[in-house]
Amino acid sequence: MTQHSTGTSITFDRATKTYPGAAAPALDALDLEVEAGELVCLVGPSGGGKTTALQLVNRLVDLTSGDIRIGDRSITDQSAIELRRTIGYAIQQSGLFPHYTVADNIATVPVILGWNKERIRARTAELLELVGLSPVETWLPRYPAQLSGGQQQRVGIARALAADPPVMLMDEPFGALDPITRVAVQDEFLAIHRAVAKTTLFVTHDIDEAIKMADRIAILKPGGKLAQFGTPAEVLSNPADDFVAEFLGAERGLKRLALTTVGEIVTGSSDRVGAGAETAGWPDVEATMTLREALSVVSAAQAEGAIVHAGGSRLGEVSLHDLIAPPTAGEDREGVRA
Amino acid sequence: MSDFAPAGDPVIPDYGQASDCVINNGAFCTDWFISQWSTVFWPPLISHIVMVAIAVSIGFVIAFCAGLLAYRKKWLAGPIGIAATFLYTLPPLALFQLLVPFTGLSLLTVEIALVCFTLVIIFQAVLVGLSGVPDDVRRAATGMGLDRNQLLFKVELPLALPSIVSGVRIATVLTVSIATIAAFVVDDGLGSPIIKAVSSPFNTQFIGAGALAVLLAFALDGLLVLLGRVLTPWTKARS
Questions:
Q1: B229 and chain A in contact, CB less than 8 A
Q2: What is the chain B residue with the closest CA to A100?
């Protein structure tokens, strides 16, 4: 694997966009600091300005006022064309060129940048491996019409990563996929993100996707105002206002439990006196399950707790109280920041 | 193949042995067709092809540029479309009549008229093809940093090709047909043997020449279909 450029921070500085003829701004004085290597999800209802915010960064939409900086450099310091070639861009339906093969699609920006053939070939093969399309030779000559939706989206991600940009913009990239494919591609993208550490702005209207993917979530409300910016755990535990609470939904308590695995809160058997008698009839759960899933198992068994296993051996137990009020729920997700 | 003997020569021309078919004026005399191929049919066929090729080529260049212009400057699409449609609606014979005082009984007169009839078809095909490029493809291309010309030549024009090719096909078939009327102006093309034969009771000449025009239209259309397939390999790629 070749060296990847590390991510660069993205700073929104009172970024405002008012479309011509519109009375109110689509995005209203957004202040947002996306740290290097961080994955931030922009979520919110239609009309919240999340796609506008994203397209301001690669200047598909021009700022009305305010500024956006990538690293220390304002996006207006260079031409829009040059800027875009340093930013990975993936969109819903993938936006692949139907007349280009997979190989040519991925090579689009490298070709424009004048890379030599050998370098492009090596990079294309490496990226296809990275997004899980191997053996590479079977995929390179295919046209997008010959791929499934999930495969197209994987190629779209590979294409966005092609020139090794420090920053990635993703506009509802998985919005058109069926639920099963969607989960698979989400997992793969998270793995890729951990491996290459690109600073990523990710627009989605799906709060569950945001909770799953994001290091931090920025919730925008109608009128293009930032309602809350925080880790999934922070947002779920302490919604800033009624709008956020409503947007997160009535199940936000359960969603919060999905941030922690049973393995993280399990108590060793030796800690409990008389554990054997107390745990009679408790169901078995795997340490990799989320608290939410374990709670579902416990509820189905009408028990007071569950016995935790990992790799076939008994790790300990969790009580019903541990599951619904975990002391450390979600705190592991805050490791990215100080 | 003059019908008249030289002046002063009293000898009655010897037309040789006519077949039964020719003597009885059958619907189509294959033997006569074959024996007259090199003088009556082959030269007009070649000049017909040349006439069509020139008209479609020039028409394509003009209409293609007009299509690009109308795509870039949307407000021009209406006026150009109306002008091209106007030219298309003119009766071909009337247009010849109109042009002859200026350009004479020449190939130029014929080509000007033929080009006029190709314009609206190819222009619309270019415009429809370019406008049909999916928005998400255009947005992705722009977002990745393609400039306007790269967007046009790498993405928009290739994706417009199927529409452009079908426009050229229709224009070509139409021009093969209209070019037969050119014989009213010049002694060229397959219209020439047809017009000469129309006033005679003999069938084979105009049926033969007419059939050649039909076959030529099919042949050129087929060639363009093949060209289209070569140029757009992705359109037949399906999983």
A1: no
A2: B234
pLDDT band of A338, cuts 50, 70, 90? very low
Kindly report, residue by residue over B208-217, the tens digit of the pLDDT. 888 999 999 9
By the 8 A CB rule, do A193 and A200 touch? yes
A81, A145, A169: residue with CB nearest B239:
A145
Amino acid at A18: T
Is residue A110 within 8 A of residue A116, CB to CB? The reply is no
Cβ separation A169–B150 shorter than 8 A? no
Q: Distance (Å) from the C-alpha of residue B76 to the closest C-alpha of chain A?
A: 23
Cα(B45)–Cα(B214) distance, integer angstroms: 11
Determine contact: B16 vs chain A, CB below 8 A: no
| B116: nearest Cα among B161, B58, B163 | B58
Is A288:A268 a contact under the CB 8 Å cutoff? no
CA of B162 to nearest chain A CA: how many angstroms apart? 11
Which positions in chain A touch B237 (Cβ < 8 Å)?
Answer: 142-143, 145-146
Please compute the mean of the pLDDT values over residues B31-55 and round it to a whole number.
89
Contact A90, A170 (CB under 8 A): yes
Q: Where in chain A is the domain with CATH 3.10.580.10?
A: 262-324
CB contact (8 A) between residue B140 and residue A146: no
Instruction: Report pLDDT digits (tens) over A162-188.
Output: 999 999 999 999 988 888 888 888 999
Cβ contact, residue pair B137, A97, below 8 Å:
yes
Give the distance from residue B146's alpha carbon to the nearest chain A alpha carbon, in angstroms: 7
User: Are the beta carbons of A93 and B159 separated by less than 8 Å?
Assistant: no
B78: buried, middle or exposed (CB in 10 Å: 19+, 13-18, 0-12)? Answer: exposed
| CATH 3.40.50.300 residue spans of chain A | 10-256
SS3 B12: coil
Nearest CA-CA distance, residue A40 and chain B, Å: 19
β-bridge pairing A39-43 and A65-70? unpaired
A10-256 adopts what CATH topology? Rossmann fold (3.40.50)
Grouping H, G, I as helix, E, B as strand and the rest as coil, residue B15 is: coil
Domains recognised in chain B with CATH numbers: 45-228 (1.10.3720.10)
Q: Which of A51, A55, A97 to mutate to test the interface with B (most CBs of B within 10 A)?
A: A97
For the record, the structure tokens of A188 come out as 């793969």
In 3D space, the residue among B36, B23, B62 whose CA is nearest the CA of residue B205 turns out to be B36
Burial class (CB in 10 A: 0-12, 13-18, 19+), A145: middle
Closest CA to A110 of B144, B102, B135: B144
| Per-residue model confidence (pLDDT) at position A333 | 43
- CATH homologous superfamily of domain A262-324? CBS-domain (3.10.580.10)
CB atoms within 10 A of CB A281: 10
Q: Looking at residue B12, what is its pLDDT? A: 63
pLDDT in tens, A12-48: 999 999 999 988 999 999 999 999 999 999 999 888 8
| Amino acid symbol at A140 | L
Confirm or reject contact between B230 and chain A (CB < 8 A): no
What pLDDT is recorded for position B205? 84
